[in-house]
Structures are given as structure tokens and as C-alpha cells.
Amino acid sequence: MKRREFITKSATAALSVSALSSAQATNPSEGEQQQASHFDAIVIGVGSMGAPACYHLARNGYKVLGIEQFDISHDQGSHAGQSRIIRMAYFEHPDYVPLLQRSYENWKSLEKQTKARVFENCGLAYFGRPDSDFIKGIKKSSELYDVPIARSSPDKAKSLFPAFSVPDDFEVIYEPNAGFITPERAILLYTQLAMESGATIKTRTRVRQWKQEGGKITVQTDGGTYSCNRLIISAGAWASKVIPNFKPKLKVTKQMLAWVSPKNWDDFELGKFPCWILEDPERGSYYGFPILPPERFGGPLGLKLAHHFPGEVSDPDKVNRNVTAGTEDDIRYVLEKYMPSAQASILSLKSCLYTTTTDENFILDYLPGFNKQVVVACGFSGHGFKMSSGIGEVLADMAMKGKTDLPVGFLGLGRAGL
Ligand SMILES: Cc1cc2nc3c(=O)[nH]c(=O)nc-3n(C[C@H](O)[C@H](O)[C@H](O)COP(=O)(O)OP(=O)(O)OC[C@H]3O[C@@H](n4cnc5c(N)ncnc54)[C@H](O)[C@@H]3O)c2cc1C
Questions:
Q1: Pocket test for ligand 1, best of 65, 74, 75, 84 (most atoms within 8 A of CB)
Q2: What CATH number does domain 2-77+184-247+360-411 carry, 3.50.50.60, 1.10.150.20, 1.20.950.20, 1.10.530.10?
Q3: What distance in angstroms lies between residue 182's CA and the mean position of ligand 1's atoms?
Q4: Which residue, 100, 323, 339, 389, is the most exposed by fewest CB within 10 angstroms?
Q5: Where exactly are the structural domains of the chain?
Q6: pLDDT tens, 94-126?
Q7: Ranges of the chain with pLDDT below 50
């Protein structure tokens, strides 16, 4: 119904075009050209959040343009690297759980529509001290939202997870419905579905400027100028280049990911070994995945793990992609201490970008001063991918309906300290 509101003018123009002579029709008039470059919604950045947003907009009949500066997908931003953990006993804050519940539903629906697999339900083991915010937060979200978890002592955990050497003062929690999402495949599938539903996707096109004028938003790219009624900014690590006054709110850091070759690969294979997150009392959080068979997941090869700790502050356009000094030692530290049988050679090291807010919670809101015409999604602080299927829907609803039925107010720009 809302769509009718937005296309009234375009529909009139389309009717008059059909009455033109064929000579006129082959030479598009200024009105037609304007119509072709005007959209109900433009999405800046077709990555983790932008791709599902394009899909939800196009599926609902809106004329949408997604603009991406690189390819779909690519390894210059925040979504590369084969796998992203998904879990629901959310230690960061229980308020994320409703968004997670919708995201789980939307991942299922993506799989059903495409007959492809993006979610691997391999379970997740959490290791940490019982008095840590990490372990307390898992239990809190689980209790509040009935998220199934199983708790075990370090002794019992030794038989359940023989690859881990668990300190006696740790508690171990297992979340059976957790696992990982394949990010590149998910972005490709959402973009393909968006295009099949009529979305226009422009790749290798960078947005240079945008502004509100005469009730619409004009977006200038290095491949032409477009206009729209609603703008969604999902520019990841580039968010503060697209919205310069966001600079103090966001920190972009280069994060290293490692793939190692354990002595015995069988023990760590998908199907036998879970995803894991471990809070080391000295160095903070580390996490990892099972070994993924290359015939189903491509590369890199081996057992993936990483340190969830802010890396080198970087400009996304000038990232030094060399391996950060100390990375190999850091990986060896966690393996030696907690997974001694996985100690072996490092196979691959890659970098990826975090965009972190001051409180490590996402930003999902209307940009102040634009009458709800501009929606912004950024600052995913190293934990956003699992929710991208839900966030895409939230963004489309906020942009076109002026509201969302999901309780995402806690991610608003008005919160203290942002
Ligand atoms: C190492 C690492 C590990 C992670 N692990 C997990 C995990 O296990 N679980 C989890 O849930 N999350 C995880 N995350 C976080 C998650 O991947 C990110 O939160 C998420 O990918 C951010 O999505 P985004 O859409 O903001 O960014 P992106 O996916 O990078 O998309 C932004 C897009 O905007 C484009 N763009 C920017 N500016 C412009 C412009 N001016 N014109 C055109 N296009 C533009 C970019 O090219 C890019 O494609 C991890 C992140 C990293 C880096």
C-alpha cells in the first residue's frame, strides 16, 4: 500500500510514455531519464547488512538501488573469512535476543527459498570463569528467553570436549542450537534474490556524496547521480566517510584471523568439533570453528581461530594488509594454553575490519534531521553478522514503513555515551 504512495508520480509518467510515438520512445525524454534514476530506496553498501536490506525492499515491491564500491562479496570490508558464529544466549546483552530469534527465522527462510545452506548447526562451547560477565551474561539471556544451554564442570567438559584443556576454575556451557553462518554465500544469495525481485545492483561504484533536496535524497556516485525517497546507509567500515560526523562514534580496526593445521585433523572436523568462545582471564576473548571441508566451503584450509580484541586502528581505504606483529605468538599462546593437540603450523593469516562503537553495541536508527528519510546501520563491533538477516528486514521496515516491530530502540543514537 505504501508503495503506491511513493510511485504515484512515476506511474503517471509511465502511462504518458506508452502514449508516445515510437521515435520519441527510443529517445528517452528528460522525464523518463529522471524516472529511471529515481528509486523508492537506495542502499549504500551491499555487504552484510545492505544485501538483505535490498532483498527485503525488493521483495515488498519497492524500486531499489543497491550501490557497492567493490564486488559482491569481497575481502576489503568486514564480511570475509568463510564463517561467522551464530548464537542466542547473548552475553553482550539480552535485549539482542528478539533480533536473534528473527534472524534465525530469516536464515531458515533464506535456505528454504534458495535451497542452499548458510547455517551449520554444529553447537558452541563457551569456556570462562563463573564470575565473569561473559558466563553470567550467557546464563542471563538463557534464563530470560529460555535459550537452551547445558552447563558442565571442567571434569565433565574434559570428556565432552577432549581437544580442550580446561582450567579447574572454569565453567563450561554448551549451546546446542548455535553454530556458524557462511557470510560470503549469504550475501551472494540475498543479492541474487534481491535482483530476482527487481532490485538494481551497481557494483564497483562508490558513493561520493549524498544530500537531501526538495523532499528527496540525491546520491552522487562515480558512475552517475541517482535520487530516492528513502536512503539506507550500511557502509560498514566506511560509515564515517559517508556520514562524516560519525567519526568520533566509530573506531575501525584491523583484525587478524588464523587457520592452523592441527596434528590430527579428524578430531577437529565439522560434525565432531563445535564452535567455541573462550575468555582467557589475561588476554580476553578467543573464538574458533571446526575444520570445514574445502569441497563444501572453499578455503582457507584448516582450523580457524581468532582473538576478539581491538587490533590496529585503520583507515578502511589504506589498510596495511600485512600480518600484524605478534599475531602468530598470540595464536600459539591460546593453542598451547587451551588446545595443546591443535598446536602445529599456521596455514593462513588474513585480515578483516571491525567497526566498533564506544559501548560495542550496534547503531540502528534514523539519522537525525532528515525526517526519517535516512536510516543508518553501522558500528557492528565484531558481532553483527549473525543478525544481518534480521537487520535487513528491520532496515527495510524502518525506511519504508517508518517503524519496525522488533525492539531495537536500545541500538538508537540517543543512548548515553555514544
Ligand atoms: C575478523 C572478524 C570476525 C567476525 N566474527 C563474527 C562472528 O563470528 N559472528 C558475528 O555475528 N559477527 C562477526 N563479525 C562481525 C561481522 O562480520 C560484521 O559485524 C558485519 O560483517 C558488518 O557488516 P556491514 O554491513 O556493516 O559491513 P560490510 O559487510 O563490510 O558491508 C559494508 C559494505 O559497504 C560498502 N561501502 C562502503 N562505503 C561505500 C560507498 N561509499 N559506496 C559504495 N559502497 C560502499 C563496502 O564496500 C561494503 O561492501 C566479525 C568481523 C570480523 C572482521
A1: 84
A2: 3.50.50.60
A3: 13
A4: 323
A5: 2-77+184-247+360-411
A6: 999 999 999 999 999 999 999 999 999 999 999
A7: 1-26
